[in-house]
Amino acid sequence: MPELIVPAGLVCGIDEAGRGPLAGPVVAAAVILDPLRPIAGLNDSKKLSEKRRTALALLIRERALAWSIAAASVEEIDRLNILQATLLAMQRAVAGLSSCPHSALVDGNRCPALDMPCTAVIKGDGKIASIAAASILAKTARDAEMRLLHRDYPQYGFDRHMGYPTAAHCQALEAHGASPVHRRSFAPVARQLVLL
User: Fold this and answer.
1) 3-class SS at 166?
2) What residue segments make up the domains of the chain, in order of their start?
């Protein structure tokens, strides 16, 4: 992966998973990689197979100088909006790091409010190793959470689509209505609530 020039000192990469789904939390991760313990194959989590993401997530947890995963709940998403809830999850992830970074690099075009310099990097999960690592941790953690939610609400198929608005999910939403873990501020869910 091409590494952009990054600031000196401890730099954490930040990314999220789950902005687009109709259900479940939005999850963010922050990672400070150890330059003495590189991890081969880091990339945007969406470009990796589930098996590869899982293997890399284990390596990241073992080799990173520090890592943290945090979330914003469905209730917070509905109360704040998805962008502000995502930024909140990112703040929580950085706050949970065992080492305090000197600066942060975040995937996308918006930075959370942090007590350190923060730079937004468009498509950063494909350019910066630490952001890619955060992308992988956030995605694998959120997928695991959605599989747990599937046990409570198997009629929606969360274990297959992870809450994203697939045709099967939208059909299940029409058939069963919204569950407590659906985002009521999202239009497809709000429409079902109106129809009740």
Assistant:
1) coil
2) 11-151
* pTM, full prediction: 0.94
Predicted local confidence at residue 8, as pLDDT = 64
- If you write DSSP's letter for every residue of 102-159 in order, what string do you get? SEEEEESS-----SS-EEEETTGGGT-HHHHHHHHHHHHHHHHHHHHHHHH-GGG-HH
Query: Is the per-residue pLDDT at 48 higher than 90?
Result: yes
CB neighbour list of residue 126: distance below 8 Å, 6 or more residues apart: 1, 43, 44, 47, 132
SS3 95: helix
Exposure string for 5-19, b = 16+ CB within 10 A, e = fewer:
ebeeebbbbbbbbbe
At 178, the amino acid letter reads A
What is the distance, to the nearest Å, from the Cα of residue 112 to the centroid of all Cα atoms in its chain?
Answer: 14
The H or E element that residue 30 is part of is strand 26-32
Q: Which of 84, 93, 101, 90 is nearest to 33 (CA)?
A: 101
- Write the DSSP symbol of residue 36: T
Residue 133: per-residue pLDDT: 98
- Topology of the domain comprising 11-151: Nucleotidyltransferase; domain 5 (3.30.420)
Q: What type of residue is 188? A: P
